[in-house]
Amino acid sequence: MAAAKHILRYLKETAGYGLLFSVSLNESENCLEAWSDSDWCGDKVGRKSTYGYFFKYLKAPISWCSKKQTIVALSSCEAEYIAAAEAACQCVWLESMLDDLKLDHLKPVQLCVDNQSAINLAKNPISYGRSKHIETKFHFLREQVGKGKLEVKHYNTKEQVADIFTKPLRLDRFEELREWYGVRSIAEFSLRKSVGIS
Question: Of 82, 70, 64, whose CA–CA distance to 165 is shortest?
């Protein structure tokens, strides 16, 4: 009940916020940006992890998700690997949609992950000892990396922007990420626009 009240208070206070989709004509910005993250055993009852991913195209947010994983991960590496695999599935769908719309983007897509072990597992099919217990469906990530469609890139944990989907954050970090995602006060944006500030 306390969590529900907390969410309702947040929704009431942020009813005037929305996503800002800015116009970008810069060809160098036509990349599909991707981040994935996971907590490990964040659910203290079922011990399942929560994963999140986020995609930007032309510097605008186009896809995001926060969801509890379907299995219990045995390590933080596995939790991050599963999160990256889910992001890889979304990435394939988004690339297909962009191709259907005849929109160019830089390839391969770089997926930013803050767990070096998960990146090594995605790049190295010989890591059998660490991956033998991971369900086969999550090795889709490894397949996409092997085909050169996706490049998994290490990102510093302090710069991981998908944190907002997986764990509670300090207020200043939350507000910083909210701004980075393009979620802004509509009244503030309208005021800035009316006085000619972009």
Answer: 64
Distance between CA 91 and CA 94 in Å, rounded? 5
Task: Classify residue 71 by its DSSP letter.
Answer: S
CB 51 within 8 A of CB 160: no
DSSP H/E element including 96: helix 76-100
C-alpha pair distances (Å), 6 with each of 43, 80, 173: 18, 28, 18
Which of 53, 37, 139, 49 lies closest to 91, judged by CA?
A: 53
Extract the tokens encoding 64. Answer: 């995001």
Does 61 sit behind a cis peptide bond, omega within 30 degrees of 0 on the bond before it?
A: no
> What does pTM read for this prediction?
0.79
The pLDDT profile of the chain, 198 residues, written as one tens digit per residue, is 998 998 899 889 888 888 877 665 565 667 889 999 999 888 888 899 999 999 998 888 999 999 999 889 888 888 999 999 999 999 999 999 999 999 888 889 999 999 998 898 888 766 555 566 677 777 888 888 888 888 998 988 788 888 888 888 899 998 899 888 888 888 776 655 555 555
Distance, in Å, from the CA atom of 125 to the CA atom of 146, rounded to the nearest integer, reads 9
Other Cβ atoms closer than 10 A to 31: 16
Domains and CATH numbers, the chain: 27-167 (3.30.420.10), 171-198 (no CATH)
